Amino acid sequence: MSSANSLLLYADTQFASPYAMSVFVALHEKHLTFDLRTIDLGCHANNARDYAATSVTQRVPTLVHDGFALSESSAITEYIDDAFEGTPLYPADTKQRARARQIQAWLRSDLMPIRSERPTEVVFYGARREALSADAHKAADKLFSACDAWLTPGATQLFDDWCIADVDLALMLNRLVLHGDDVPQHLASYARHQWQRPSVQRWVQLQRPPL
Known about the structure:
This protein is of the alpha+beta class. It folds into two domains: 82 residues, Glutaredoxin, CATH 3.40.30; 106 residues, Glutathione S-transferase Yfyf (Class Pi), Chain A, domain 2, CATH 1.20.1050. Helices cover 51% and strands 9% of the residues. Strand 1, helix 1 and strand 2 form a beta-alpha-beta unit. The chain is globular.
């Protein structure tokens, strides 16, 4: 296992990136000390030469550990889990671990109507948006159906133990829950339960500049 001699996390200035949040939570779950720096995406600071040379993908988050820089949030959380002791971020069971990775990959590549019409400013700033479009309703139904396939009735987490995919799934649901959109009660309860995890609340309670 590695030591946390030098850990630096780059996140967005508004602390609204769900992907930066996932890495931030992972670091806290491992009880790691790290420096947090922000990148102003609105000013395209992610395209600046110095940051681009570090992140390569020119996105947030990026984690730097003893000179090793890594971007793309699920790659970062897997690295953190492999490199450091502490709370497991992924299940030990091979099939459950694969399922957690599947959920993370899907949430990052699908459900665009929800992500577009319920951006994370809804979650972290209380922003209000118009009623969901037909496409967003279809995406929401797809999300609910997937959740019902993965979560046993009344479950407060995906597997026997918490994992980082719970944070990502709860964030997607909370785009709707915290806006007041219709979400099945059992899924809203799951999302609210995950939102109260201390590591998640650390991110939620960060001081944010005005939009």
